[in-house]
Design a protein that fits this description.
The protein is an all-alpha fold and 181 residues long. 57% of the residues lie in helices and 0% in strands. It has 7 helices and no strands. Helix 3 packs antiparallel against helix 5 and helix 4 packs across helix 5.
Length: 181
């Protein structure tokens, strides 16, 4: 049985309660629960990590986190168009700007995808290629929306957000996915 690395509520998000494989690749900023651009710092990322911990405790370390992510997104019930996170950049920006809440909803889903991928590595020490792809899809959406200067041309945190996304991408690129049998 694989050990689960679950954070102690009194300690918070720290390396000692993270799988050694995650500790090996995670940047110090990944443990900052107050940094909105860290994988687990936003409300969406933090909530996803905590829910993922509970899910693994209930279902075991060998459970497929694709089920977790599908259930989480279904529970959120955002009603996003199917595969919008895979849409071409111009279509993604267009859809995001079409209604006031669209950007918030797709950003929340993207953060959940990133947090599920990195959270799985943090908790069990291995990530499937499918969950790794979900994390990359989340980063892609966040990058496209962050790079777009048409809606918020003077947003002062754009550089910080893009650096954080580059750091997350670098970590996702270092992870060797496990192959499902």
């Amino acid at each position: 049985m694989t050990d689960l690395y679950i954070d102690d509520p009194d300690e918070g998000l720290v390396p000692v309660t993270s799988h050694p494989r995650f500790v090996e690749v995670a940047r110090e900023e990944f443990y900052d629960e107050a940094n909105e651009f860290a994988p687990f710092g936003s409300d969406d990322g933090h909530g996803t990590l905590r829910s993922l911990e509970e899910w693994f405790e209930e279902n075991g370390a060998n459970s497929d986190p694709r089920t977790f992510l599908a259930e989480l997104l279904e529970d959120w019930g955002f009603g996003l168009p199917p595969n919008i996170h895979e849409a071409a950049a111009d279509k993604l920006r267009e859809w995001s700007a079409a209604e006031d809440m669209n950007e918030v909803l797709i950003t929340s889903e993207a953060r959940a995808r990133v947090a599920t991928a990195l959270g799985t590595l943090k908790i069990v020490g291995a990530v499937s290629s499918e969950i790794l792809a979900e994390g990359r899809a989340g980063v892609r959406v966040l990058r496209i929306l962050t790079e777009d200067t048409t809606r918020y041309p003077d947003w002062p945190y754009r550089g910080e957000a893009l650096r954080a996304l580059a750091d997350i991408t670098a970590v996702l690129d270092r992870i060797d996915p496990v192959t499902e049998a």
